[in-house]
Amino acid sequence: MAFSKQSRKQTIENLKNTPLDLLIVGGGITGAGVAIQAAASGIKTGLIEMQDFAEGTSSRSTKLVHGGIRYLKTFDVGVVADTVQERAVVQGIAPHIPRPFPMLLPIYDEPDSTYDMFSVKIAMDLYDRLAGVTGTQYANYTISREEVLQREPGLKKDKLLGGGVYLDFVNNDARLVIENIKEADELGAMVASHVEAVGVLHDDNGKVIGLQAKDNLTGETFDIHAKLVINTTGPWVDKFKALDKGETFTPTLRPTKGVHLVVDDSRLQVPQPTYFDSGADDGRMIFVVPREGKTYFGTTDTDFTGDYEHPTVEQPDVDYLLAAINNRYPEADIKLDDIEASWVGLRPLIAANGSSDYNGGGANAGKVSDDSFNALIHTVNEFEDKKATREDVEHAISNLKTAHAEETLSPSQVSRGSALNRSDDGIITLSGGKITDYRKMAAGALALIRTILDSEFNVTTKEIDSKKLQVSGGHFDPTNVEETIKFYTRIAKEVGMSEKEATDLANRFGSNTGRVVTYVQNGAADGLSLKETISLRYSVNEEMALTPVDYLLRRTNAILFHADTLPTLVEPVVAEMGRLLDWDANEQAAQLAKTKEVIAETQLDALK
Known about the structure:
- Helices cover 38% and strands 18% of the residues.
- It has helices at residues 5-17, 29-40, 77-93, 117-131, 145-151, 173-186, 237-241, 315-328, 370-384, 390-398, 438-457, 481-493, 499-509, 513-516, 530-542, 548-555, 558-561, 566-581, 585-602, and strands spanning 20-25, 45-49, 64-65, 99-100, 103-108, 141-144, 160-166, 169-170, 190-193, 195-202, 208-215, 221-231, 256-264, 274-277, 285-291, 294-298, 302-303, 341-347, 418-422, 428-432.
- The strands form four sheets. Strands 1, 2, 9, 10, 11, 12, 19 and 20 form an eight-stranded mixed beta sheet that branches. Strands 13, 14, 15, 16, 17 and 18 form a six-stranded antiparallel beta sheet that branches. The chain has a three-stranded antiparallel beta sheet with strand order 3-8-4.
- Its EC number is 1.1.3.21.
- Residues 21-353 form the FAD dependent oxidoreductase domain.
- One of its GO terms (molecular function) is glycerol-3-phosphate dehydrogenase (quinone) activity.
């Protein structure tokens, strides 16, 4: 099914002329999750995004679907419970994207360490219990100092006590968004990128009846009418609220900036994702993740007040991460010139800390109360002295109760809870959260939307089980991923690709691989492999890739993890996109220049 620049024109005409039940503002993971569920529920749905899909926060995460074990250091049990349970749900609805990959957590005997060997086992047991993986092949375990160094000889040996190993999932954040978006489109949603909300429409009673929108590709301004409008703009939530002149509001977010850096694995090799304290006595933790022959590490966590549309990596960000990585891997000696790529994103943290009751945390979510915490530690001590059973410990864990969180917190302590609210004039706002719990956030919003449509507009919709609503490319048995990917690999190999190329294609597109290989009919484009050619053609025609950056950064990870291929890849990609999208010479030159500018920024040329 076409989902392209050509179909976008018709979509915009439909948005102009079709009264919607629901208009979603924001095409990141939150808006995409609402769109797929709304369309599946029979709700007449539209979605607009002012940039490319996932161009903001949703393509700039740590690229993991994880439960946030670090939130257990402040015992933010509500957030961890939601997200750790959602990992398996997301893997079920997008089985070609997140993959299980156990995480190593080295433990050091240092002041203010998040965990010691005793407390990490308690945290991991709680983590597994919340996730429901106790007693499975993915259950956590601890390893000795010697075993940690066998796995990662480059780790700092001084004060290393041992380590914990627990389950997490690697993820492709941008592809998770686009696959949700594509499925929403297939289900009938009217979805358009590069359309910006510029005003809010009200009826004579002051109730919101739609938005004024601007097509950022043509400059045209037009109205979109809808019974309900939902704000899913991530870090822009407060900025969008400011458009609503019919409401006064207090800012609710505290955006923080997170930076990640990429080096070749010849400079830093790790066998599995690794997670440790920064070593800077600041309460932060750092991920180090192997991917596609590279290793990336992050993240920073600093308050942000700059340009939301264009956050940048600055020298202090690089200095901080290099200090952290070289402290933990002292022989690596990573320098600025070793950095092949980087990315920076904003987290839409809710300023008033603590999970909302919508996100399962309850009114007092946040830190565990002193009584509950002391009771747990007492029970664990009793267990160590053989005076209590494992069941006693599990009971103490399950009875943890939370207290009000501290009023003043550092950025890395602010909760990742979400919030769902409706203003007096009717706009719904879904904010906060983590990429891992996007499906659950959307389900909560849909429950409210369906209730309002029924009670206020007499619109009946159907209830769906969003835990089984698979995204585009994910329409296969999630318990049989390996064999299914092998099947799609064979399909790709049959049109002339190598095993490696075919496997990469199958992993990227999942059950859509059969559609992708239909683009072989015109052969390979000049300067591109057959795999790259058909991937590009599919992305332009069926994934709304409108620029080379859309393709090289968000439909694929070439700019982030394949910097060595870019010198020979960029110009052929621009040329083939020019042919597909009818660009003249001036437009091709402009697109080439923009692509090189983005690559230079990603590679930190200005700092180098």
